[in-house]
Amino acid sequence: MARLTIENITKSFGSVQVINGVNLDIAHREFVVFVGPSGCGKSTMLRMIAGLETVSGGQIRIGDRDITNVAPSKREIAMVFQSYALFPHLTVAENIGFGLRLAKVSREEIDRRVAEVAKTLQLEMLLERKPRQLSGGQRQRVAIGRSIIRNPKVFLFDEPLSNLDAALRVQMRLEIARLHQRLDATMVYVTHDQTEAMTLADRIVVFNAGRIEQVGTPIELYEKPANTFVAGFIGAPSMNFIEANIDTSRGAPAAAFGPAMLPIEAARLPEGPIRLGVRPEHISIASDGEADFSGTVEIVEKLGAESLVYVQTGFTPEPVTMRAPPHLQVSPGDTLPLILDRARIHRFSADGAAF
Amino acid sequence: MADVHAIHPAGKEFNPWPAVIFIVLVCLALLFLAPTAGVLLSSIKTTREIALGDLWSIPDRLYLGNFAEVLQNPAVHRYLLNTLMVAIPATSVSLALGVLAGYVFAKLPFRGSEALFLVIIAGMFFPPQVILIPLYRLFNAVGLIDTLWPVIFVHIAMGLPICTLLMRNFFATVPNALREAAILEGANEWQVLTRVALPLSLPALAVLATLQFTWIWNDFLWPLIFTQSDEKRTIMLGLVNLKGQYSVAWGVQGALSLIASLPTLIVFLFFQRYFIKGMTMGAVKG
Amino acid sequence: MERETGVWRLVFLALPLGVFTLLVIWPLASSFYYSFTNWNGFSAEYDYVGFENFAKLWTDKLFFNAAVNTVIWMVAAILLPTLLGLVLALLIDSRIPGGSVFKSIFYFPICLSAVVVGQIWIWIYQPDWGLLNTAVNAAVGSDLSFAWLAKPGTALGSVIVAWSWQQTGLSMVIYLAGLTSISEDLLEVCEIEGASIWQRIRIVVIPLLTPATVVVVALSVINSLKGFEILYIMTGGGPFNSSDTLAMHMYNESFKKYLMGYGSAISVVLFLVALTIIGIYFRELKKVDEIYG
Fold first, then answer.
1. CB contact under 8 A, B183 and A146
2. Where are the domains of chain A?
3. What is the least distance, in Å, from the CA of B120 to any CA of chain C?
4. What is the mean pLDDT of chain B?
5. C120–B130: do the CB atoms touch at under 8 Å?
6. Long-range pairs, A212-219, Cβ under 8 A, ≥24
7. Mean pLDDT of chain A
8. Which chain A residues touch C2 with a CB distance below 8 Å?
């Protein structure tokens, strides 16, 4: 069973601590995506699982086996690099069989297994080519081929799609999803692209500043972000944030911002100002008399399937983003009455935590 | 190539500059070629012709007596052989050591490795005279004076800085991910070096081999210090020695110079690209 | 894994560092040591003489002569090839036909040895039928028979010319490489802004060649400090020590007169001179790196 357990992992470079006590339990066959801004520690965490970085403290286990200090090649893991790291002087077949050759596996055995892998990845026609004669997508398949030939228990992917153009990225994303369905292996995937994270992951781990902000399924993170960081990071375009104060002058507590007063219910109200989060799809144009507030249209971005409308409100520093139907007739300068979907408003206290 | 000079704004009818530059360059080139041409001419003329002041005219017949004289001289054979016996091992070993050290500095840096690297590089800057006496004493103590060994050893040591520098710079361009991928596949550092890094650095090795071989072949100082008997002298020393023997036989001296320069000229002709690359590494950023 | 890497480092570095320590670092340190002795090169015994050798330097007229010549030699041997190389590079870079042929012609002397270059130029300067006198005679119309290398006034200068002939190609190719890295856009901006050729070269091209100049000067310094062989071949430091440099003086004192202790003192001075130049150079290099890095 390839369950991957990460316990109290810390990592420092000199006096700088880049990973601050990470705990994570990844189930057998689970597809987990590490996501976060650059420098958040997600890649370092992946490289520690691979054994390319030493661990400053804590333990990493695969199944019941402690691999914290095991050599990378003995961990039964495989890794696909951002650059694919194909050896430019070797053919596709030699690249895929590289590890087996080092392990002194017999020539016939290598050939047989390379052929097998090449067949699953549709690389048969390319086996004698050198990496530079391949397209981006083919290179990625070779990199995957090199990783699956050793039957690893855990696959590690380090931003494998970031070198591809947009169309190919979608295609390769599907291919990785198929690979996961077919193989009996656990996968850990690092990306800074939240769309990739949402589409691929069974569970997403959001990293920020060397610690985990939240772990959950894509829908959990989308619907119940634990704090403003996760709320802002997951979802595109980003969630709108509105500064508000709690007003209890009329009895029932309400969030007051601009001209609006929205009642809020909570077991325990935080001290001080709060922050409301509203996703662009949860703002709509109000019919007469229902508007929470109104604003001036600044820019309309027509994406075809929908339009994004940026509205200046006067009480938010940045314009509010609204998702609108594609044929909505608005132009910059128009004044729009807007209403928020009350049930979908996220509330955060001053320190960023959801309540 | 960046075009610095040519003026080509639209509408200009006649541009005299290229023609002027071309003529200036031809004159300079002739001036640069004249010294070499003198040697070439002398080598195919008789001593009598040269003494009569006829060196600089184009000969109407090819006189090969000078070359025959040189090639029949057993001392010349010995000098050439000695030089090869120094240049080949010294070039290969200094390259090998440069590869090892360069790999560590590029791919396995450690605390203080940058400083250590600078110390080795600094070795390139110092005039060799500074360490002449202690080296003489060292090799004298172990009884190797008047053999080729000290020349080989010293060339290995003196070549180490440039080899380390170039190999480290080259290995630095080999992506780290390649090393890591190999390690994940079970390679140790030796296997990373021999199976991944080295096959990718053949151009750099060619550059270095060209430079090192030329420098060692042309060297005069070290064999001058460490060898005494005629049997152990290298070609450049031999050239100076034979000057006495052929004191007024200018033509023979010319032929001798030519034969002594032949290996490096051949290397230059075939590897000019590498030669220039080696010399210009670092001149261009990125 | 970290420990294993440490072992590999040790394995890889052992031989290079061993050789370097034994044949470069240790001798360097020993030079300092011998400079305080009166070792004569063969006897097993020698005495510690304190600063006597250095005191002797102070009164050694030949040493001062050699020091002055070294300065002249270095300044000229750095400036001439650098400037000439820059001019040649700019000329060749101007899209004239046969550029690569010119490049090879100017470059090939670099692969000749000091001995051969010396030999070639001894002939050029040969009083009776040397090219220089032949040309001068043809121009002036009289028989000059001037012995360039045998006259104290011209010996050092004559060797510097020979040296420049050999080294110019090196700075030229480095400048050519630097020129290729100047983006075409910048030169087009010059054209749009209406800069003259001269302005273009002075204001844009030469400043952008700074990294190349850094390399050229570094190599020139290295090479000219080592410029012992060609002087040895062409003049042997003469006539009347007029082309004697520190390296030559050190060689003569150590290996001709067998005053190894005194020779070591000279080499220590040579080392300190080199160290100073390199120190200044690296400090300047840092500034350049900050701008162009």
1. no
2. 4-233, 240-283+294-348
3. 8
4. 84
5. no
6. A212/A22, A212/A23, A212/A24, A213/A36, A215/A24
7. 90
8. 54
C-alpha A85/C-alpha A131 separation (Å) is: 10
Query: What distance in Å separates residue A315's CA from the closest CA in chain B?
Result: 48
The CATH number of A240-283+294-348, from 3.40.50.1580, 3.40.980.10, 2.30.42.10, 2.40.50.140, is 2.40.50.140
Task: Inspect the interface and report whether the beta carbons of A54 and C4 lie closer than 8 Å.
Answer: no
The ranges assigned to domains in chain B are 17-67, 72-280
Q: Which DSSP helix (H) or strand (E) runs through A301? A: strand A293-302
Please write the tens of the pLDDT for every residue from B135-179. Answer: 988 998 899 999 999 999 999 999 999 899 889 988 988 899 999
Q: CATH homologous superfamily of domain A4-233?
A: P-loop containing nucleotide triphosphate hydrolases (3.40.50.300)
SS3 B239: helix
Position B53 pLDDT exceeds 70: no
**All structural domains of chain C:** 61-292 (1.10.3720.10)
Mean pLDDT over residues A157-186, rounded?
Answer: 87
Coil, helix or strand at residue B99: helix
What's the complex ipTM? 0.85
Asked if B101 and B160 count as a contact pair (C-beta separation under 8 A), the reply is yes
Min Cα separation C78/chain B (Å) = 14
Pick the CATH number of B72-280 from 3.40.50.1000, 2.30.30.90, 1.10.3720.10, 3.50.50.60: 1.10.3720.10
Interfacial residues of B (vs A; Cβ cutoff 8 Å): 175, 177-178, 180-187, 191, 196, 199-200
- Pairing relationship of beta strands A346-348 and A31-35 according to DSSP bridges: unpaired
Q: Average pLDDT of each block of 10 consecutive residues along chain C (293 residues)?
A: 83 95 92 88 80 88 90 91 92 82 87 89 83 80 78 89 91 88 82 80 86 83 81 86 88 87 90 84 74 63
CB < 8 Å to C1, chain A:
51, 54, 69, 71-72
Interface test with B, best of A48, A53, A79 (most B CBs within 10 A): A79
Residues of chain C neighbouring A69 (CB-CB closer than 8 A): 1
Rg of chain A over CA atoms, in angstroms?
Answer: 25
Global model pTM greater than 0.90: no
In chain A, the percentage of residues whose pLDDT exceeds 90 is 56
Which residues of chain C approach chain A closer than 8 Å at the C-beta?
1-2, 4
